[in-house]
Amino acid sequence: MTPTASDAPADFEVALVSLNQWQLAWRRFRRHKLAMFGAGLFLTFVAIAAFGPFILPYEATNVPYPLKFCPGTTISANLGCPPFNDGHILGTVGGTQEDLLTLVVNGARLSLTIGIGAAAFASVLGAIVGGISGYFGGWVDTILMRIVDVLLSMPLLFVIIVFAKVFGYGDWRVILLVFALLGWPGIARLVRSLFLTLRTEVFVDAARAVGVSDLRIIFRHILPNAMSPIIVVTTLSVAAFIVTEAFVSYIGYGVNAAYNPTWGNILSNAQNDILVGNWWWPLFPGLAIVLTVLGINFMGDGLRDALDPRSRE
Amino acid sequence: MTDASSRLAETSAAAATGARPVLLETLNLKKYFPIMGGLLRHQVGSVYAVDDVSLQIYKGETFGLVGESGCGKTTFGRTILRLEKATGGSVSMDGQDVLALHGDALKRMRRRMQVIFQDPYGSLNPRMPISDIIGEGLLAQGDKANGWRKRSIRDQRVGDYLEAVGLRRDYSRRYPHEFSGGQRQRIGIARALALGPEFVVCDEPVSALDVSIQSQILNLLSDLRAEFNLTYLFIAHNLSVVQYFCERIGVMYLGKIVEVAATDVLYATPQHPYSVALLSAIPVPDPRVRTKRLVLKGDVPSPANPPSGCRFHTRCWLRERLGNPAECSTTEPPLRELAGGHLAACHFAEQVTAQAVQEAAATQSVIETAVDVD
Ligand SMILES: Nc1ncnc2c1ncn2[C@@H]1O[C@H](COP(=O)(O)OP(=O)(O)OP(=O)(O)O)[C@@H](O)[C@H]1O
Ligand code: SF4
Ligand SMILES: [Mg+2]
Question: Where are the alpha helices (DSSP H) in chain A?
Fold first, then answer.
């Protein structure tokens, strides 16, 4: 054997520590300040949702002793009291006089559950359908893509009303289900186009040439290379679903506020009182939505950069 | 390459006596790609990428396939390897009908015929360590007899083949992005050879590499051929590479084989007007011996709409010289044997003489620019 000398240029030495693509991506992500900030923000809200309700002194929907007036004033407590009164750090809401902090913290649970749950559901289903469609093509592809077209043309509110009629109004599970149902087709389209491109990659041909099965080609060659865009889109759709939930709840088709506070239905209940000047009521749930969505979007942008295999270091 | 000339002599002698066993044979192999269009996305035409190609590749030889970009060389190789579904014709490997195989039988056949790709970057999955890239074929082909299902046996073999291609065993845990282009090409070679194939399609294995590295990889391929008794189908569009690397050469034009001959015979006495033009386009290092290039008129016609009769007639200098005989545009010239093992597909191949070529080159119009075949 003659070729003993490496044909790499002298300055090209194979590294001692070998990092795979995911490790490299994590290294790039860590250096992305805005993305790390966004991830921190998002994780903070996740922690609040997970542990907050156990720490807070008040029950979400239970007000033991309604007041007549806000402490130290002659303002009717029925309109809600401003922040920092009588232990209510963010104030209380009008009508029920519930503690706003408690509401927002409990609202985080469902808002995030719906956002993350719907995004996860939509991604998994979208990836499976899109993957099958893109890899196998033919009539399977045609049928699946027609279903996708139909679902993508359905108006959200209409579907929510139909589902609510069947499964009951105000149920958060219905909202999550509808979001997932209308969310997966978009992801399926993305995954299909990724698979269409990836299945013509030379390394896929190489795998086929040595006798690797279709199933293994899908899971070992195509899916790992399609993962980055899928992760980015899933992340961003968490934010999109949180905003949509807020919107749907705000106009009254969402989750029932009487049993399950969400950021959206807290905002919705606040809308009449904005006129009275109770700024804190809409401000804090609104802020929670904005900060969470911003955090997720920063994180998504960072992921996009970090996961791009063309970006070196 | 001192043994190259002796090898060539050996081949031409063997070819002349017709004594060599055929390893791979194609008969009227066709691959047409559908062109979809129109409102309903139905088929509106075909790209005749490989059209009626019959070739014999002898056991142990290196057969070069040359031709301009887009003439169907890659498609020919891929169709043989069952990476494309053939439109028609047959492929036989050691007498076995390759196109009829299914399932397990096809998988077993894949052990015997392998491929080395042109692009050293695209051909390695960036998300897999080298050990998996090379070992994957072993895993897929593993059975009780070879024990390749066992990780330890597989890793051993991966290491052996890494060394065989001039890389270190302990590189197997690394990822493709850690290697240079030439090293990646070696990894691709190791992947192909790890299955122990007899026949390897080398699809322009060096044209994406730095010139300084090309000869190293060519030497490696040549050594491996001797070591593992390989038969190569070596695809190239660089005629200077195949001259030293291949024993016999097939020239392709628009999906058809137009000439087949032993390398020395082809370079000395090309019989098809297209081969003559291709050869005259090779840059001559010494400017004093630089003869006038024979220039091809116009562009390569589209393989979706190939010219009638002889596909080369729209650009043929010989046809012009002969006063545009009707035969050229009406009747397709068959690939016929002119001398022992020398085939050409031209009605007037006998008229291609050194003198005719010189005269044609001298009289051609100066306005026409050379079609470079790099
Ligand atoms: N998958 C495909 N679908 C449609 N047309 C194709 C496909 N693959 C190749 N072709 C067409 O078939 C013809 C032959 O292509 P091929 O890649 O085999 O040429 P080639 O001789 O290898 O060229 P090059 O020297 O550039 O590699 C070209 O016109 C090409 O556009
Ligand atoms: S058959 Fe006619 S057109 Fe074709 S190569 Fe021969 S002379 Fe030229
Ligand atoms: Mg090619």
Answer: 21-31, 33-55, 100-136, 138-152, 156-167, 172-198, 202-209, 214-216, 223-250, 263-270, 280-307
